[in-house]
């Protein structure tokens, strides 16, 4: 059982067994990464930037979801009744919505007053993080020098390395990769390290000792490999 306060929603793609997530006040607008969290039972999304109730499409596949807090998002709109009925029509297994218990009467009324969501939200190029100008520049020159992007990626990775008590990554380790490979590798590495940091906070002394032993063996294996290569 995992209960986490996560810094970025993309991590959820790698946490299929997570049960409770708090994403409140995070500027989140896209719920697509949550559709893999099949054990999710409680989800807190208060005060984000979810503009459309069509995002509920990604939550309809979660069989164990019982608690959802979606209040104070743009998708709630000016009509509280219509909003609540639409959520309950699409997520009839909820027991609590916005910290208010769901009644059998509401579930019945939702079939009449709620809007059924049958397709994922349509996303414009801007919503996906790409404007027309950005897309065109991707086929030509980059908007930032490669060296600046590499420095940014390296700085972010080394910050996480420092939190874990690990040595910083030398710049020449990054410069040996192409820009695209570096950005992809940095993103994946950052997601994994962030998840590790969060999970370590949930462990007791015994659990941390086990992690320490595993890390020690892993480091010995790497050191042995480096000596063989030399």
Structure explained in plain terms:
With 230 residues, this protein is α/β, with parallel strands linked by helices. The protein has a domain at 10-113: Ribonuclease Inhibitor (Leucine-rich repeat, LRR (right-handed beta-alpha superhelix)), CATH 3.80.10. 43% of the residues lie in helices and 7% in strands. It has seven helices and six strands, in the order E-E-E-E-H-E-E-H-H-H-H-H-H. It has a six-stranded mixed beta sheet, with no helix packed on it. Strand 5 (96-97) and strand 6 (100-101) form a beta hairpin. Helix 1 packs across helix 2 (104-113) and helix 4 packs parallel to helix 6 (179-200). The longest helix has 25 residues, at 205-229. Residues 1-7, 125-150 and 174-182 have low confidence and may be disordered. Pfam families: LRR_4. Residues 122-147 are annotated as: Disordered. Found in a complex with CFAP410, NEK1 and SPATA7. Interacts with NEK1. One of its GO terms (biological process) is cytoskeleton organization. InterPro entries: Leu-rich_rpt (IPR001611), Leu-rich_rpt_4 (IPR025875), LRR_dom_sf (IPR032675), U2A'_phosphoprotein32A_C (IPR003603).
């Amino acid at each position: 059982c995992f209960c986490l306060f996560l810094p970025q929603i993309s991590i959820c793609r790698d946490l299929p067994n997570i049960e409770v997530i708090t994403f409140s006040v995070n500027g989140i607008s896209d719920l697509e990464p949550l559709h893999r969290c099949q054990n999710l039972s409680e989800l807190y999304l208060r005060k984000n930037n979810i503009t459309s109730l069509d995002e509920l499409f990604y939550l309809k596949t979660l069989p164990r979801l019982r608690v959802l807090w979606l209040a104070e998002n743009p998708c709630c709109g000016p009509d509280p009744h219509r909003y609540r009925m639409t959520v309950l029509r699409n997520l009839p297994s909820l027991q609590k919505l916005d910290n208010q218990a769901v009644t059998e009467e509401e579930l019945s009324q939702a079939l009449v007053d709620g809007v059924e969501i049958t397709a994922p939200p349509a996303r414009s190029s801007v919503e996906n993080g790409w404007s027309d100008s950005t897309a065109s520049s991707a086929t030509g020159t980059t908007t930032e020098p490669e060296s600046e992007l590499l420095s940014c990626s390296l700085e972010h990775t080394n910050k996480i390395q420092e939190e874990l008590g690990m040595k910083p990554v030398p710049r020449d380790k990054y410069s040996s990769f192409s820009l695209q490979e570096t950005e992809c590798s940095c993103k994946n590495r950052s997601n994994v390290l962030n998840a590790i940091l969060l999970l370590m906070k949930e462990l007791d002394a015994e659990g941390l000792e086990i992690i320490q032993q595993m890390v020690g063996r892993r480091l010995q294996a790497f050191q042995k490999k480096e000596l063989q290569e030399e």
